[in-house]
Structures are given as structure tokens and as C-alpha cells.
Amino acid sequence: MPIVRFIREGRDVKCRTGENLREIALREGMQLYGFKGSIGNCGGCGQCITCFVSIESENQGALSPVTEIEKIKLKNRPHTWRLACQSIVKSSVVVLTRPQSPPANSEKLIEDALIKGLPK
Fold it and tell me: Mean pLDDT over all residues of the chain?
């Protein structure tokens, strides 16, 4: 079973291969959205771009390929950002939720999360 390591929340969550990243985050009670997204998200259709996350794993194949919607909506965003609603988990992955407002110690949190290693 893949593990999704949520950096900000300090949690590892087991999931099934093929699960949607947004659904995993919401099911586990993660604060996926900032204020704007919490009051006006599109419900997972890829239209509002409020569920973006930063994928910090070195395994680029951990999620489904970037969708056409993501290519358009995230055009001017960092290449590590994905829309959680458009991302299907294929193998274990390290995720930073709400990367637009990272915690002050985000570099250390990311480093620590990556050092632990993940199951394949």
C-alpha cells in the first residue's frame, strides 16, 4: 500500500493505489484549502485551482501524469505543484499542502520528510 506523507501535518497516511489525492487529504482531515478555497472550491473538478499541493518526492512517477487541466491552470506555478483533485496516487509520495503559504520551517520539514524514506 502506498503512503502519502503530509509534511505540514506530520502524518503518513496509507491509501490504495489509484486513489485521488484530494479525497485522501479530505478523508484524513487535512487542511487542504486556504481560506479562499475552503469557502469556494469546485468540489474536485479542477476548475478553481485551490487544492494545489507541492510534490516533494523525488519519484516523479508517484502520481498520475499532469493533466491538460493542470497544464493550463498551473501554467505560471512551480513545476512541483499539482492539483490534488487531478492527482491519482500510484506509489508513495511526499506532499506539502498549501504551498502558497509554507510554514516558516518548511525547508527543514521537507528535508526531514525526505530523509525518512518511503516504501515503494
Answer: 92
Chain center to CA of 95: 4
- Tell me: pLDDT of 31 over 70: yes
Strands ordered across the beta sheet of 3-6: 11-14, 3-6, 93-97, 52-55, 81-83
Per-residue DSSP letter, 88: B
Residue 51 in grid coordinates: 487544492
- Residues of the chain with pLDDT > 70: what percent? 98
In 3D, which of 55, 114, 53, 56 has the Cα closest to residue 83? Answer: 53
Percentage, residues of the chain above pLDDT 90: 66
- pLDDT of residue 53 exceeding 90, the answer is yes
Domains of the chain as residue ranges with CATH:
3-115 (3.10.20.30)
Yes or no: say if 48 and 37 are a contact pair by the CB < 8 Å rule: yes
Identify the CA nearest to 63 among candidates 84, 47, 79: 84
Q: What is the 3-state secondary structure (H, E, C) of 21-39?
A: HHHHHHHCCCCCCCHHHHH
